[in-house]
Write a structure and sequence with these properties.
This protein has helices spanning 3-12, 35-41, 43-52, 86-101, 113-122; strands at residues 16-20, 23-27. The chain has 141 residues and is mainly alpha-helical. α1 (3-12) packs across α3 (43-52) and α4 packs antiparallel against α5 (113-122). Among the domains are: 3-52, no CATH class; 86-122. A two-stranded antiparallel sheet has the order 1-2.
């Protein structure tokens, strides 16, 4: 096994590795204890990979890595949108907020309540979300 294959096997087994000075600290489930021998055999290469901090994340099945070029931290993540019809945006966002409050997050673009209220604030609408007490439905006979 190569050092990279050992790292992948440890991850797939549910284990974890950490570097403490020149020592590898590990947690490995009993069913995968055989990996300790591999860790010892590939120790220098694994220490090198862990020290570099550039170990590739293992791609899930069906995912192909196209490019690996991690940026240096800190990295600012942001979402940029341009609204050209503010009234329509407000109506749509309020509909998404309603769906989110009803537990239908997929209809809210999988956005959280906080995300939706912040989007509204950005176009000049401030809302406060309070928990709604369930009401008893009644019918007239």
């Amino acid at each position: 096994m190569t050092a990279t294959e050992v790292l992948k096997a440890v991850e797939e087994a549910g284990g974890a590795l950490a570097l403490s000075g020149d020592q590898i600290k590990y947690t490995i489930p009993k069913r995968a204890v055989w990996l300790v021998t591999e860790l010892r055999r590939q120790r220098q290469e694994i220490v090198g990979l862990l020290r570099q901090g550039t170990v590739l994340a293992f791609m899930p099945a069906g995912v192909r890595l196209v490019r690996w070029n991690p940026k240096q931290p800190p990295v600012v993540l942001k979402e940029c949108s341009v609204v050209i019809d503010v009234n329509k945006f407000i109506s749509a966002t309020l509909a998404q907020l309603r769906a989110c409050l009803e537990g239908k997050n997929w209809l809210a673009g999988n956005r959280s309540i906080r995300d939706l209220t912040e989007r509204l604030e950005q176009v000049g609408v401030e809302v406060e979300v309070r928990p709604v007490k369930p009401t008893v439905e009644s019918e007239e006979l």
